[in-house]
Structures are given as C-alpha cells and as structure tokens.
Amino acid sequence: SHNPATAIKAINTGLPEMLMFSINPAFDMLPAEEYVLDHIDKGFSAELFRGVDPKRAELYKLCQKKQIGITVMKTLGAGKLISPEHTPFAKPLSVHQCIHYALSRPAVASVMLGCQTSDEVRNAVQYFELDDSEKDYAEIIGTMRNDFRGNCVYCNHCQPCPSEIDIAAVNKYLDIARLDPSNIPQSIRSHYFSLDHNGNDCIACGNCENRCPFGVPVIKNMEEAEKLF
C-alpha cells in the first residue's frame, strides 16, 4: 500500500503476515490524505511537510506490535531524494542514507531498490561496510527540525552514550509501548530487555540531548521506558 490509513485497516483485520509499504523521509512527512505517488510525478511539495505524519508513525508501531514485517518500496522516492535537482531537502540524500532511514523505522525487515545497473547494486550493498556517520540522515532532514521537534527519528545522531545505551532502540520500543501502556506485547518487552543496556543504565549526563538535532527529551524518555517496562 501507499496509504497508511488503508494499511492500518488491513493490518487490523489480522489477515496480513507482512506488508509492502512505500517509506522514505519525504513520504513520511506528507499528510496521510496525500497520494504520495502524485508527488513523484509532479515533484514534492515541501510546504506540506509537518514532521512524520502521525498515521504513518502509528502504522509502523502497529506492525511492530503485531510482529508484522514491512518490506519497503520507493526507498529512494523514485530517485528524487538522491537528485540535486529534485530533492525537497536542502541537499540530496545518499542511497545509503535512504536505506538507513527506512531500516530504522519500526517493523521494517527489508528494503527494495530499483537498481538498473550492476554498479548501482554494488553501490547499494556498500551499505553494510559503512560506519554510522556515513549513513546518518539527521543533518539533512534536520533542515526541517522544527517539524520534528521532540520526536525521535531513530537516527542515532545522539551517540555515543557513555553507558552504551542504544538510545534509538529504547525510544523505538518506548514509542510502541505508548500505544497501549497497559497491554505491552511480550515480544516488545523481550526486545527491550534483550538490549545490553537500557533506560535503567542512563546516568542523565545530557550528552545525547546536546547532540540531538530534534530536541528529543532523551533523559525523560529513558526514565519513562524504565517505568513502563
């Protein structure tokens, strides 16, 4: 699907075992009522961007909660996100940044790219050899940081943590737990407690909050995660 509201209805039937869905930073920032493929044909209307659309965020968390994997389509926005001429952001994203953004969403299991040449395939698989700084997309989508203010986009720009907490992972599981705090799926609890370090290990040093481009209250989130889980 390309529409989060439709996808949510389908997921809530209990029938799907996996979902193919179009995910990239530009699509995520368009309102749910927008037909995203129109923006590929006509160009992205960045004035519509208001941070990650709540319906899309709800869909990803719902799939994670129900253990339904998402396979991502339109990872590069039909090539527009990596194009200097067509990107809606201050500068184009790299292929690897687009891949990393999609893989960082809750429930995403895999991404698909429309490679046309063997060189494009080889370039894509270099993703596995890059360090986190080379995949970091925060700087680019951070040009619209006011639209993301206070919301974690799981970019890991906040790292390193002196307590070695995977802050993005804790925030991801916390976001899912917030959907229904009184009924947190055992699978999400298991994922949280399988982390080498979690919210309980936070020393409230504030280094992460100083690095975060989006003003996420990380320390508060670590405390909330520990209470919820």
List the helices and strands and how they pair.
Layout: H1 4-11, E1 18-22, H2 25-29, H3 36-42, H4 54-65, E2 69-73, H5 95-103, E3 108-111, H6 118-125, H7 132-135, H8 138-141, H9 145-148, H10 167-177, H11 186-194, H12 207-211, H13 218-228
Parallel strand pairs: 1-2, 2-3
Provide an overview of this structure.
The model has no long low-confidence stretch (mean pLDDT 89). The chain starts with a helix and ends with a helix. The chain contains 13 helices and three strands, in the order αβαααβαβαααααααα. The protein has 229 residues and is mainly alpha-helical. α1 runs parallel beside α4 (54-65) and α4 (54-65) packs across α10.
Please give a handful of descriptors for the protein shown.
mainly alpha, three-stranded parallel β-sheet, 229 residues, 3 strands, globular
Please give the domain count.
2
Structural class: mainly alpha
**Rg value:** 17 Å
* Helical residues, percent: 40-55%
The largest sheet, given as strand count, sense and whether it forms a barrel, is: 3 strands, parallel
Outline: globular
Average pLDDT, rounded to a whole number, is 89
> Can you count the helices?
13
Order of adjacent strands in the largest pleated sheet = 1-2-3
Give the ordered list of helices and strands. HEHHHEHEHHHHHHHH
Number of strands: 3
Low-confidence runs (pLDDT<50, min 5 residues)? none
**Which band does the percent of strand residues land in?**
5-15%
Ends distance? 32 Å
How do you describe this structure in short?
The protein has 13 helices and three strands. The chain is mainly alpha-helical and 229 residues long.
